[in-house]
């Protein structure tokens, strides 16, 4: 019998508790605890409970959990936001993740609750999580104004946080016009026009999305304009551009749909024009970064790819000189050029 105490498997213990920590963050965000503490001195649990209309004992436990997780500071005077809560967890912070956190709570959490069935059946669990099976991922998000707004806010928060690194991953100054296919709220487009003032950028997305973009536009008076165009990238004419962009689009779709989309882009791309893909690029073993590997568990019909898989895929559709930039941010970038016609 071993005399020494067993070494604690801290990684496993952290994972066992991970779901509680995630849910505490989600609920604190949903109840707007970080918004209530913004720009305020320390507040007592009872005052926060009154503000958010929740029980004092429940609020106190949640506040203590947030303090334990390093999201709040707790002193004898009460609770206050940490710097990172002010920057990322308040709903109006410049790089707020609030939208994505609410999407995680309301949409991803119910899906992941059914992970066991998802693995057994190898399919998304919309029917179990939400009582319906949608034929298209996006129809599911856009059936109600509330869910659509929530999804767009989630996309916007990540796109805004990653836009600079995606836009500067390569020198794009040679391009005169760009079209961000599935560009949603225009977060990346706005960053591109800031960095490349001579670039004209069109955001192309479904009509339901384009109708809802005004809420997400930056308010600065001197913002260079971005054009919005609505349509279905599987069916409608694509706007002309010498740089096409697909950010977080390819991983959503099965191979047949990707075939349609990349064939259509390749057909309108002139030789020398380019395609910029923003995705999380997996390592060749396809186990890193874990964020991408865990996203796959949502069981959409699409998949995450490694650098060599993106290169191979893009070459199949006439794109060459593929360059990959691992940004260190939440999205990486892949740039490739339409091949010249054979001599
Ligand atoms: N590019 C944005 C980003 O990186 O944050 C949004 C990514 S979101 C996962 C996919 C986007 O593709 C959504 O805005 C969605 O509306 C759009 N989309 C889906 N199907 C589409 C279609 N058939 N035609 C045009 N856009 C579509």
Task: Give a description of the structure.
- The chain has 2 domains: 10-89, Arc Repressor Mutant, subunit A (Orthogonal Bundle), CATH 1.10.10.10; 163-338, Vaccinia Virus protein VP39 (Rossmann fold), CATH 3.40.50.
- Helices cover 45% and strands 14% of the residues.
- The chain has helices at 10-30, 33-37, 45-52, 56-68, 83-89, 98-113, 115-121, 126-130, 137-142, 145-167, 187-195, 207-210, 255-268, 290-295, 307-316; strands at residues 72-75, 78-81, 177-181, 200-205, 227-230, 243-247, 274-279, 319-325, 332-338.
- The chain has a 7-stranded mixed sheet with strand order 5-4-3-6-7-9-8, with helices on both faces. Strands 1-2 form a two-stranded antiparallel sheet.
- The chain is globular and about 70 Å long.
- Residues 138, 155, 158-159, 182-184, 205-206, 209, 232-234, 247-249, 252 line the site of S-adenosylmethionine.
CATH architecture of the largest domain: 3-Layer(aba) Sandwich
Provide the residue-averaged pLDDT. 94
* Approximate shape: globular
Percent in helix: 40-55%
* Highest CATH level, the class of the largest domain: Alpha Beta
Which stretches are low in confidence, meaning pLDDT under 50 for 5 or more residues running? Answer: none
Q: Mind describing the biggest β-sheet?
A: 7 strands, mixed
> Which structural class do the helices and strands define?
alpha/beta
CATH topology category name of the largest domain:
Rossmann fold
Q: Kindly report the spatial arrangement of strands forming the biggest sheet.
A: 5-4-3-6-7-9-8
